[in-house]
Amino acid sequence: xxxxxxxxxxxxxxxxxxxxxxxxxxxxxxxxxxxxxxxxxxxxxxxxxxxxxxxxxxxxxxxxxxxxxxxxxxxxxxxxxxxxxxxxxxxxxxxxxxxxxxxxxxxxxxxxxxxxxxxxxxxxxxxxxxxxxxxxxxxxxxxxxxxxxxxxxxxxxxxxxxxxxxxxxxxxxxxxxxxxxxxxxxxxxxxxxxxxxxxxxxxxxxxxxxxxxxxxxxxxxxxxxxxxxxxxxxxxxxxxxxxxxxxxxxxxxxxxxxxxxxxxxxxxxxxxxxxxxxxxxxxxxxxxxxxxxxxxxxxxxxxxxxxxxxxxxxxxxxxxxxxxxxxxxxxxxxxxxxxxxxxxxxxxxxxxxxxxxxxxxx
Length: 362
Ligand SMILES: *[C@@H]1O[C@H](CO)[C@@H](O)[C@H](O)[C@H]1NC(C)=O
Ligand SMILES: *[C@@H]1O[C@H](CO)[C@@H](O)[C@H](O)[C@H]1NC(C)=O
Ligand SMILES: *[C@@H]1O[C@H](CO)[C@@H](O)[C@H](O)[C@H]1NC(C)=O
Description:
Strand order of the largest sheet: 4-3-7-8
Shape: elongated
Bound molecules: 2-acetamido-2-deoxy-beta-D-glucopyranose
Number of helices: 7
Helix content: 55-70%
Strand content: 5-15%
Order of helices and strands: HHEEEEHHEEEEHHH
Number of strands: 8
């Protein structure tokens, strides 16, 4: 029981200390503390810490006023009575002289955050100017920027939160949006161009990879297909050769066996003869592949035979021709003989006529 009580007390003490430290932390912060605040994303005001004004454009919005490195959140004015009803606005002499600046009427220095009330106006203290720390966006990501509040005295734009130091040497309340717009536009342009380039590069790379892989695959497939085809052809050739040889050899063995079996039978002599013939034919078939050269020689021999035949034929033809000539000679001889015979007959006739005539004459 004692332990439980002790632990409960310890827990309460720790809890209150935590809350207290948080609230006191909220009251005063150094400028480095403020600038190191992580600007978190949000949907509602409740998503943001108590020192934040609330949720603005999905980011927790902060506003701190700092004098001499003491920063107080704008929200604290309601939490801490010491800071309530204080006039946040300030006027520099430069702005006041140009009648551009006015604050709520102050009665004493304590009414002003600048702790300087002059003729009812909260005037700035050039030795300790009011610094505004608030949300700023650098290339889309928010952070806390600290710089001189509006109407504070300035020499250049970099001194002002608005980044606008007027010709009359005071920070303008009009924010230099053109600069920011330019920056954001440049950032947007960079982002868009970068994105487009990235997409293009990734597209090209993916296309190249796809292409090369496809090409490689295609080539590989083609190679494999060719190789497969070649192997199939080889295997089939080997198979057919082997099969043929085996079948033929088996046939020879069978036939020779049957021959041996049938040798004793005188009746089957004819069969044996045919078997022997078949065996011889098969042997010839087997040897045919190997005897191509001898076949060629045979063909050559045939050719020479043919040539010889031709020569013989030619000779025969020549002989025939001489025969014909002889016949012709015979014929002419016969004709000549005939002619001589005719002459003889004529002579005979003339002779007969002569004798006749002689007889008549006689
Ligand atoms: C407010 O400030 C005064 C003096 O500056 C101080 O005495 C007082 O304790 C403060 N009050 C609180 C609630 O902090
Ligand atoms: C304050 O105001 C009064 C009258 O309005 C003027 O006479 C006086 O010079 C002013 N003082 C300063 C410091 O501006
Ligand atoms: C700077 O402030 C002046 C005065 O408020 C204003 O006229 C001018 O337009 C501002 N300049 C820029 C760039 O915003």
